[in-house]
Give the backbone structure.
Amino acid sequence: MRAIRERGRVCWCAAVVLACGLASGVLAQPGGSAPAGPGDGTELGGPKVMPSVGLGTIVERDSSGRLVKLEVSPAEAALGKLTLSDAERDAAQGVIARRARAFDDLVRANTKEILAIYNASQSGRKAEAFRGLSALWDKASAVRTPGPLADQLAKVLTPENAKKLRGIVDEYFAAAVDEERPASKGEGGMGAMGADEGAIARVMLKAIGVELANSYRRTVTQGGAEFDALIKELSLTGEQEGKLRTLVQEALLEGDPGVSPRERRRIFATIWRDLNAEQRQILTEKMRAQDEGPGMRKPKGK
């Protein structure tokens, strides 16, 4: 059991690094959030069950023969290939929503830590990154305890649909492991794992990484979406945009994700002095439209 738990820890740690790489890149890029895939959970309400389209497969390949990347977990993607009753659909939606909340709570409570882990790994500070990852693993019981998503979903489906779900997921994992095996052999596996175990671990970590990245987008980068629109409306210069993005990112990492009305006013007050008359007028009108008060008070002496 110790070996199994340790393998899970290795997979989880690698997944966090992968997810941070995906999501922090989204946060840092001009233009803001990444494009949303179908059912990727970028809505405020969390991930939605994909429409039922009958029994099928989630194994799709591109023109080069490689697997097409899933935008959600394999189990959630497989669910969309089943014909569900209303009761099954409602129950499955509840399972997915609870899992999304568990991931969101983990990311929300550890946003700074996740970015610190990513920065440490990118800077080659492996010991520091591993210590952070181990600490995060210990905080992830709400995600780990309920078990794999496929098992959770199978419990709320009819025996027939549960069997179909597992079959679709198993088919995808088999194809994904086959694709990862050459890379695992080339790297000599992951740590002490052999090539086959390494391939399985890589597939697992990528699946978890997708869920973490989607959670990061929901809880962190979504808070900056309104500022992306504002940047376009104000026609900010490169310098002005850079300053605004720095302020927004700092606000997103303070306390709960999202920018509170108070933080929003502070950000706007800070950039006010760098705006021209036309930009100030647009900003004032926007604040009024958002019912944040009778416009923003101009800094004294301006």
The longest helix spans residues 159-186. Confidence is low (pLDDT under 50) at residues 22-54, 188-192, 292-302. Residues 26 and 33 are 5 Å apart (CA to CA). The radius of gyration is 22 Å.
